[in-house]
Specification:
Elements lengths: L1 H11 L8 E14 L12 E11 L4 E15 L6 H6 L2 E16 L12 E19 L5 E22 L4 E12 L14 H4 L9 E13 L9
Antiparallel strand pairs: 1-2, 1-8, 2-3, 3-4, 4-5, 5-6, 6-7, 7-8
Keywords: Signal
Protein name: DUF6089 domain-containing protein
Pfam families: DUF6089
């Protein structure tokens, strides 16, 4: 993560042209998992998540956005409302590094070069990929490392609100669900050829995870010309 953040900073401080403005900053908050192990609450952070964000504001209403987020994912059947899961009593603890890219849309104009306080809700979506370790539950219910890593591709769906708190800093709060095209994050479906013997749960339903937290970005660059957008 340290090298990724330094790379973003290097790009950010390259001299900018006269037709854009940039933001670089951090995300800090929590994560929760929705799958075949643990509780199924939609927004219930139970582990840490943090990372870096870079934005290229193309107009007062939309921005290109890239983020790198490292997070723990935890699930405990004992925290579930499903009595069958409570009785099973499985638990897992995994971590992932997510890279996400897409577009952020604001509900109202968010031109940082005009004076005054600005507050706007926003939506973000695009594509994400998360590197994670693979585990499975053996015949005794023991959480076992497969010693292999996989990429889980997904679609981020983020709703947030942000405001400029100074001339150069923007504070935001967001909740972002990630629908993945994988069912391997919680160990319910092994990655190896022996998956049929140890798979459980709803194998037709893929995993979700949710990030909830704050963003703080620093804005810089020349006054933009939005006339072409």
């Amino acid at each position: 993560m340290r090298y990724l953040f330094l790379f973003i900073l290097t790009i950010a401080f390259v001299p900018s042209s006269h037709s854009q403005i940039y933001e670089v900053g951090v995300f800090a908050g929590g994560s929760n998992f929705i799958g075949d192990v643990g509780a199924t609450d939609y927004i219930s952070p139970n582990a840490a998540a943090f990372g870096a964000i870079f934005k290229w504001n193309r107009s007062p209403r939309h921005s290109w956005r890239i983020s790198f987020i490292y997070a723990d994912l935890e699930g405990m059947d004992s925290k579930s409302d499903d009595p069958r899961r409570v009785q099973r009593d499985y638990s897992f603890d995994n971590s992932l590094l997510e890279i996400s890219a897409g577009m952020e849309f604001t509900f109202f104009d968010f031109d940082l070069h005009t004076p005054g306080l600005k507050v706007t809700p926003y939506l973000y979506s695009g594509i994400s990929t998360a590197l994670h370790s693979n585990y499975y539950f053996d015949g005794n219910g023991k959480y076992t490392d497969e010693n292999v890593k996989s990429w889980a591709y997904g679609i981020p769906m983020v709703l947030g609100v942000k405001s400029n708190i100074t001339n150069h800093f923007v504070l935001g709060f967001e909740v972002g669900a990630r629908y993945t095209f994988s069912d391997e994050l919680d160990g319910s479906v092994p990655d190896g050829d022996f998956r049929e013997n140890f798979s459980f749960g709803n194998t037709n339903s893929n995993d979700w995870y949710v990030f909830t937290g704050f963003t703080l970005t620093y804005t810089f660059g020349q006054r933009p010309c939005y006339c072409n957008f």
